[in-house]
Amino acid sequence: MEMISLEKELKENSYPGRGIVIGKSADGTKAVAAYFIMGRSENSRNRVFVEDGEGIRTQAFDPSKLTDPSLIIYAPVRVLDNKTIVTNGDQTDTIYEGMKQGLTFEQSLRSREFEPDAPNYTPRISGIMQVENGTYSYVLSILKSNNGNPAVCNRYTFDYGNGVAGEGHFIHTYKCDGNPLPSFEGEPKLVAIPDDMEAFTDMLWNSLNEDNKVSLFVRYIDIVTGAYETKIVNKNQ
């Protein structure tokens, strides 16, 4: 697979929706994750990321303007022992509880489908990173309607083993803007992961569409020690 420019990819797409990037830093020492949310409606744009224990959650920036919290208020990131879960919805909790009970990442998601937001049927995108004794592996998943047909849920899992230094994979909910919104197609896209967390965060945030971007989360985890650093950027300050 050819590596694409993540900066170019984001700048040329006004509405990829919600996106997950997971990979390994160029020097091979850090497990890296990024998650961003975008919005077209006032309800979707009225959000911020806030830290919640070792993870994060979405929160209404102005509670008085919150109308329907069902698909926009959730915990995108949770940590279970040496596993970091990143998703675009409340399936974060499904994965967390399932794995606590001994299920795999993929098995935990068997109980879930795409979002019930006809006519878009927004895909559920999820990722998990495992850092243990100096080793690192990651998996991505997408649950989507069958070409817009809600009678069938197509399930795709992409397992990248221990990854490659300097490489990551990018998956997002929508192929582009539209009505209805067309779902992401194909494999997660191969992108570069730098060592510089500040530069990576700035590049992601500055590349997202100014009108539609809402919040960004970036985390770098030391593969040996498990120590991590987190950056959160919110348009609503």
Q: Kindly, what is the distance between the CA atoms of the first and last residues, rounded to a whole number of angstroms?
A: 39 Å
Strand content: 35-45%
Number of strands: 13
Strand order of the largest sheet: 11-10-1-2-12-13
Determine the fraction of residues in helical runs and give it as a percent range: 10-25%
Q: Based on helices, strands and strand pairing, what is the structural class?
A: alpha+beta
Shape annotation: globular
Radius of gyration: 16 Å
- Main β-sheet: number of strands, strand sense, barrel status? 6 strands, antiparallel
Query: What's the overall average pLDDT, rounded?
Result: 97
List low-pLDDT spans: none
Give the oligomeric state of the chains in this entry, treating copies of one chain as homo and distinct chains as hetero.
single chain
Topology pattern, helix = H, strand = E: HEEHEEEEHHEEEEEHEE
DSSP summary: helix tally: 5
